[in-house]
Design a protein that fits this description.
This protein is an all-alpha fold and 745 residues long. It contains 27 helices and no strands. The chain has helices at residues 2-8, 16-33, 43-73, 78-131, 134-150, 157-188, 200-223, 243-260, 272-300, 308-331, 335-354, 372-394, 417-433, 439-463, 475-495, 498-506, 517-526, 528-534, 539-572, 593-612, 615-638, 645-664, 669-672, 677-686, 690-706, 712-723, 731-739. Helix 19 packs antiparallel against helix 20 (593-612) and helix 20 runs parallel beside helix 22. The longest helix is centred in the N-terminal third of the chain and has 54 residues, at 78-131. It is elongated, with a radius of gyration of 50 Å. The N and C termini lie far apart (155 Å).
């Protein structure tokens, strides 16, 4: 560069203008080369020129800077330096537009190179399509698609639009050509099928066209660049199908629209089962072919995550959803039609999942009912139907009869017919809403179930009320008790099911910090206290019915005891103080008449309870009745009377020969050992020999006067009582009992 400036400029700065004229000539030469925009030859030569110019401009700028510096430090040659610096600066400024223009020309060259490449690929696609070389055409299209991806970040908006438009155009052309070929092949082997068994003619045609079918199918997959979600739960019902699978569904879409839209008789809003049944039939007819012929092709193309049969079903369900949405605009205002549509969709949903093996995460047309208007209509219909059905069930003549009475292998719950019917009704609601995809909507149905059960609870409370309801010893009252206990047990069991656990924990705070539901379910099964403390989806209802069970049991026990109390009046008035002891030669003492009457009444009550209540309930009620009768005899018969030796014998005989054997029939062996325990212990004290009775009484009086439980005298008295088999009566009460014994003076 120094040599060039010395030869061209020398000591005269004005000669820098020579450089400008030289560069102008080179620019004119470059413009001539670019005069034909379609030709991109010679590009390397002018790119080299541009590079040289840029280097020259840089060196001139350096020269300008140096000359300016010399002018400031060398005063002797100041005028000359100023002239040199000024001339170089003017030259640089004159060259700058030229360099900018050359840079722009470089961008134009690059722009034209991209256009040329795009046009070349488009021509290749068109040429291969015209020649029927579909595979080569798709290969060229793939390169064009790659260019489109590369240019996505370019600032050249028109270039981006051009390549994208070109790509879309040839994608449409390729799709049209391949789809046409695919349709011809499908017709050759009579797709779609009319039965699940392929005819021999269709099978023969399939064998002939299998190779061509496989080729076109693979090309269609390669052309489809949308990709499919790997997770089935992420797929929406109306997401587009994979290209070749969509072509398999298209003939059936046309048939569906032909039969179930428009003016044809098969398009009936009163008969949704017609189109649902038809779709089910199409799925069954084509499942085997899809699994055996199509699925291997998907595997071979690397689409392992796509299930051909599931996607085929989803394509048909798109048509069902469209049909349901169209019908809902009118059906939603007709209760009968809406109820029928919901029922048919429920049946179809169940068939899809259980029979046709459509995966649970995959969406169905059933979710159409989750729209605001149809859902609230559905919920109101459910409530109205449930209330009407419950009233019908409860008002039946046999409503409170055991549901399984007289049946073989009948259960022991003694559940009334109406209660069984109501719980089946509640379970039916669960079956209908459990498949909904929205937890929010499921919770609204759960709230409806709780409201219905609490309404039934309110009716039971009113019917069992002392003021206007049936009496506790009435069979219907016991049916109420069975019903409440059965509902409590069933709801506790339901509350431990995973479905209701999920709903319950969706309503609880801190759900993210809780352990997994499977862990919680295991803990609840192993620890009943943990389950009680955690609650369940039916906690409020369970608590209400549990309280009712406790109240009804208490009412029943109180009624039995009160009935027995009335009979004890006569038994209480027996002349206990004047009865004579049985002689040695006398036959066994008979049960007193009043005791026999009391025992007979008690037997009737216990048998009624045994016949009417479930075994679990009756066992609990018997235990409470026995404890209460023991207290009743002790307080109403023993404590108010004085007993001679004969009277004590008679009381002991009545209890051990009549009451205790009767009660033993209604309790287990362990409980029978403690029957009437307090009354029998009182009899033991009353039957002490006179001397022993006086000594025991003296000891007891000393213990009572000491007033100290830990006193030696008190402990001695307790030990003495225990030695003679008295464990439930303390020394104070034992003293009172012994004072009731009439001892000879």
């Amino acid at each position: 560069m120094d040599d060039y400036l010395d030869s061209s400029v020398g000591n005269d700065p004005k000669l820098l203008q020579n450089i400008l004229r030289s560069l102008s000539k080179e620019r004119d030469s470059i413009e001539k080369q670019l005069s034909g925009v379609g030709s991109l030859e010679g590009g390397n030569e002018w790119l080299k020129v541009i590079a040289d110019v840029r280097v020259t401009v840089g060196e001139l700028e350096t020269l300008h800077s140096n000359s300016t510096s010399i002018a400031q430090t060398d005063l002797v040659r100041g005028d000359c330096a100023q002239r040199v610096g000024g001339g170089a600066g003017a030259c640089v400024e004159a060259l700058r537009p030229l360099v900018e223009e050359l840079t722009e020309l470089e961008r134009v060259h690059s722009y034209l190179a991209w256009i040329k490449r795009i046009n070349q690929l488009c021509q290749e696609v068109e040429r291969h399509l015209s020649s029927g070389l579909l595979s080569d055409a798709l290969s060229a299209y793939t390169q064009l698609s790659s260019l489109s991806v590369t240019l996505e970040t370019s600032s050249c908006s028109h270039l981006r639009h051009y390549v994208l438009s070109s790509k879309q155009h040839w994608h449409s052309r390729l799709t049209q050509t391949l789809s046409s070929d695919f349709g011809v092949i499908l017709k050759e082997f009579q797709w779609p099928f009319t039965t699940s068994a392929i005819s021999s003619k269709a099978l023969e045609a399939w064998n002939k066209s299998k190779k061509r079918f496989t080729e076109v199918f693979s090309l269609l997959i390669e052309l489809d660049d949308r990709g499919s979600p790997v997770n089935e739960a992420a797929v929406q019902l109306n997401d587009p199908l994979l290209g070749p699978l969509e072509l398999l569904v298209q003939p059936l879409r046309k048939r569906f629209k032909y039969h179930f839209f428009g003016e044809r008789k098969t398009n009936s809003k009163e008969k949704p089962e017609w189109y649902l049944t038809q779709v089910s039939g199409w799925i069954r007819d084509h499942s085997h072919f899809l699994e055996e012929r199509i699925q291997p092709l998907l595997f071979a193309s690397g689409r392992n995550h796509i299930d051909a049969r599931v996607e085929f079903i989803r394509g048909l369900l798109q048509e069902v959803e469209t049909k349901v949405q169209a019908d809902l605009t009118e059906v939603v205002y007709d209760d009968a039609l809406m109820s029928h549509l919901i029922d048919e969709l429920l049946i179809f949903e169940r068939e899809l999942r259980m029979v046709l093996q459509y995966p649970c995460p995959c969406p169905t047309p059933f979710d159409v009912l989750l729209g605001e208007v149809p859902f609230h209509k559905w919920l109101s219909l459910e409530k109205a139907f449930a209330i009407e059905r419950m009233n019908t069930i409860v008002s039946s003549e046999s409503a409170w009869q055991p549901a399984y009475d007289g049946m073989a292998n009948a259960d022991d719950t003694r559940v009334p017919q109406c209660t069984e019917g109501i719980m089946e009704l509640i379970k039916g609601i669960t079956d209908r809403y459990s498949s909904l995809s929205s937890v929010r909507h499921q919770l609204q149905f759960l709230e409806l179930q709780r409201d219905l059960l609490l309404e039934f609870h309110h009716d039971l409370v009113a019917n069992s009320d002392d003021q206007g309801g049936v009496g506790p010893l009435h069979t219907q009252f016991m049916a109420y008790l069975n019903a409440s206990n059965y509902i409590t047990a069933v709801l506790k069991e339901w509350g431990e099911q995973m479905f209701f656990l999920e709903l319950y924990y969706h309503t609880q705070e801190g759900g993210a910090t809780r352990p997994p539901l499977t862990t919680i379910q295991l803990l609840r099964r192993q620890d009943s206290d943990y389950a009680s403390s955690e609650g369940s989806a039916f906690s409020v209802v369970v608590e209400a019915f549990s309280d009712l069970v406790g109240r009804l049991k208490k009412c029943l026990v109180d009624a039995v005891v009160e009935s027995v109390r009335e009979r004890t009046y006569k038994y209480k008035k027996e002349k206990w103080h004047s009865m004579t002891p049985a002689g040695k030669d006398e036959l066994a003492r008979d049960v007193s008449q009043s005791a026999a009457e009391l025992t007979t009444l008690l037997r009737e009550h216990l048998r009624l309870i045994e016949d009417q209540l479930s075994p679990l309930l009756s066992s609990d009620v018997f235990e409470q009745i026995i404890i209460s009768v023991d207290k009743l005899i002790f307080s109403e018969v023993v404590l108010p009377n004085y007993f001679s030796e004969g009277g004590a014998e008679q009381l002991h005989h009545d209890v051990t020969a009549a009451l205790r054997p009767l009660l033993a029939k209604f309790t287990d062996e362990m409980s029978s050992r403690q029957l009437m325990e307090r009354t029998i212990e009182a009899c033991k004290l009353l039957q002490l020999l006179p001397g022993s009775a006086k000594l025991m009484l003296s000891l007891l009086q000393q213990a009572v006067r000491s007033g100290q439980v830990r006193d030696d005298t008190y402990s001695e008295a307790v030990s003495a009582l225990n030695d003679m088999g008295v464990h439930t009566i303390d020394p104070t009460l034992a003293e009172k009992v012994l004072k009731l014994r009439i001892l000879p003076s």
